[in-house]
Design a protein that fits this description.
Blueprint: H1 9-19, H2 38-52, H3 54-57, E1 65-69, H4 71-86, E2 93-97, H5 125-132, H6 145-150, E3 175-183, H7 187-199, E4 204-213, H8 224-238
Parallel strand pairs: 1-2, 2-3, 3-4
Helix pairs in contact: 1-8, 2-4
């Protein structure tokens, strides 16, 4: 329900330069004006369009990757699930940067979220526990204003295209890079989803950036970890 293509424009440009690749920065519909599944469909059909018109764009249809951060990570994961279900488009790699892969208090067997999973100094306890860890922390659906704006039917929180963690199977999904930030409530989402993919036989790399918080890739030019992540992504694209 927020953000714009301009937020990640420089990230996309740097990855394009480093990977010598064509990068599409998708401008998708936002809630509450356009709730689920509008944004998902925008992203899915954008990728399908690129795949179907690969020759016109001068790209290799066998090497298409999708990526996103936060809500965009949710969409990238969901696009891969939908592409598997629909049989098209072919996606070679997914890069999920601190993605939200479950909503409200929905979970699967083995998943737990706890502040105890974070090493927090006494000096920083308040800002971390009361701010940085708020994203990803389980909550009742009816108390989550963001979620209420995104879905029109409470039962949608159980839809794998909303909560990719709940997919019946993750087998056969594209190669994956999962990226978490040490002091981000979504880090637990990230690392658990990486485990789900690995256990399903998906070639998965999981990276945790120490000292970082949610949305650190937006700080390209300010924190070196953002540039490092762009290099990691570009190198992975080159190896496809």
């Amino acid at each position: 329900m927020g953000g714009a293509v301009y937020t990640v424009e420089n990230v996309c440009k740097l990855i394009a330069e480093l990977a010598d690749a064509v990068v599409f920065n998708v401008d998708y519909s936002l809630a509450p004006e356009k709730p689920f599944p509008n944004g998902l469909n925008d992203n899915y059909y954008a990728v399908k369009h690129v795949y179907d018109h690969a020759e016109a764009y001068g790209i290799d249809p066998e090497k298409i990757s999708v990526a996103g951060d936060s809500a965009g990570g949710n969409y990238a994961a969901a696009v891969c699930l939908k592409a598997k279900d629909e049989g098209t488009p072919k996606i070679a790699m997914q890069v999920l940067i601190y993605p939200a892969v479950t909503m409200a208090d929905v979970k699967v067997e083995g998943y737990e979220w706890s502040e105890d999973f974070y090493e927090i100094s006494e000096d920083h306890k308040d800002i971390i526990k009361n701010g940085l860890l708020s994203l990803g922390k389980p909550s009742k659906a009816e108390k989550n204003l963001f979620l209420g704006a995104y879905i029109t039917n409470k039962s949608d929180i159980y839809n794998p295209y909303v909560s990719p963690m709940l997919a019946k199977s993750h087998a056969g999904l594209p190669k994956a890079i999962l990226v978490g930030a040490e002091f981000d409530g979504l880090r637990i989402h990230t690392e658990f989803y990486a485990k789900q993919l690995q256990e399903s036989g998906v070639d998965t790399t999981c990276i945790r950036y120490k000292g970082m918080t949610h949305a650190f890739i937006d700080k390209l030019g300010h924190v070196p970890q953002a540039e490092d992540l762009c290099i990691e992504i570009a190198n992975a694209i080159r190896k496809l």
